[in-house]
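Hi support team,

I've been running sequence recovery on a batch of backbones for a student project. Most finish fine, but this one hangs at about 90% for roughly twenty minutes before it completes. I'm not sure whether the input is malformed or the queue is just slow. I've pasted the structure tokens below so you can try to reproduce it. Let me know if you need the job ID as well.

Thanks,
M.K.
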């Protein structure tokens, strides 16, 4: 199957499918201009599927990052809300239907692109860990950091890779490179976001993803920046192996986070603890345009 998920179904189901896709598109539009821009660069056969993935993980992330708490839910109620969301996600993946529009759209993508609980459960494990941090400051050591990043970000890259390769044939060696690239890109995105979100993670969420309970130094920042650069380099090597109608979007997202990493590298840590570094919209647009041009000049696989 190569069309949009909404191409399937007749009558009432088709209308419901389309409404679900509108809902997931609205989520990415409301929460991320960067990923919203990147998805517009995807080929039509990939675009809606990736939006559906983003919306599912975004809602889970919001449950644990303050929305439920601001709505008045205590830690026990937040845990129950997330557990209910997890159960409905997995139930809808098995049946192909949910009354929750976001999960209905995601479930149809999961079934078409062979996304299983081996990818969704690690993601939910990381989200569950975040709720526990409300009891006090959560300090992540190296092992906890690696486990959290795998679940919260690397598996999301692997879900997107399932979308891109669902109609494709690759050798075992090529798939190994692509899997490593997807994981490294997800990890890079997460690590640079940890750096840019130091203020919010520390002061509001009481989490220390990068340095435990100790405050980071400029030397710590430099070490993490170097890690992100290595991860982005690994991911960059995999881009030519992607189908051509996925490369511009991935290349654009990678370039955006490389630019963000460079800005973080120039920002003193004490400033990072007070403000969130951003890439201006004109720069984002220029990076996206360059990604389109570079990809257009490449040959098809």
């Amino acid at each position: 199957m190569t069309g949009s998920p909404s191409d399937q179904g007749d009558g009432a189901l088709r209308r419901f499918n389309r409404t679900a896709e509108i809902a997931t598109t609205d989520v990415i539009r409301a929460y991320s201009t960067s990923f919203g821009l990147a998805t517009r660069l995807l080929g039509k056969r990939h675009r809606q599927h990736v939006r559906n993935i983003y919306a599912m993980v975004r809602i889970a992330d919001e449950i644990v990052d303050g929305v439920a708490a601001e709505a008045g839910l205590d830690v026990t109620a937040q845990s129950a809300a997330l557990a209910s969301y997890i159960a409905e996600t997995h139930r809808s993946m098995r049946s192909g239907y949910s009354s929750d529009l976001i999960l209905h759209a995601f479930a149809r993508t999961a079934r078409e692109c062979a996304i299983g609980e081996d990818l969704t459960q690690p993601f939910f494990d990381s989200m569950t860990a975040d709720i526990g941090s409300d009891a006090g400051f959560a300090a992540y050591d190296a092992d906890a950091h690696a486990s959290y990043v795998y679940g919260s970000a690397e598996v999301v890259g692997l879900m997107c890779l399932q979308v891109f390769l669902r109609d494709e044939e690759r050798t075992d060696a090529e798939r190994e490179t692509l899997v490593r690239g997807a994981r490294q890109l997800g990890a890079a995105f997460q690590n640079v976001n940890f750096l840019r979100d130091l203020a919010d993670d520390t002061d509001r969420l009481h989490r220390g993803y990068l340095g435990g309970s100790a405050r980071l130094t400029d030397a710590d920042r430099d070490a993490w920046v170097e890690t992100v650069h290595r991860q982005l380099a690994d991911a960059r090597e995999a881009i030519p192996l992607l189908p051509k109608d996925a490369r511009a979007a991935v290349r654009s997202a990678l370039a955006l986070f490389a630019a963000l990493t460079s800005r973080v590298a120039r920002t003193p840590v004490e400033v990072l603890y007070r403000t969130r570094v951003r890439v201006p919209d004109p720069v984002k647009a220029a990076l996206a345009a360059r990604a389109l041009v570079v990809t257009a000049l490449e040959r098809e696989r």
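--
Follow-up from support: It reproduced on our side and the slowdown came from queue contention, not your input. The chain has 13 helices and two strands. No action needed from you.
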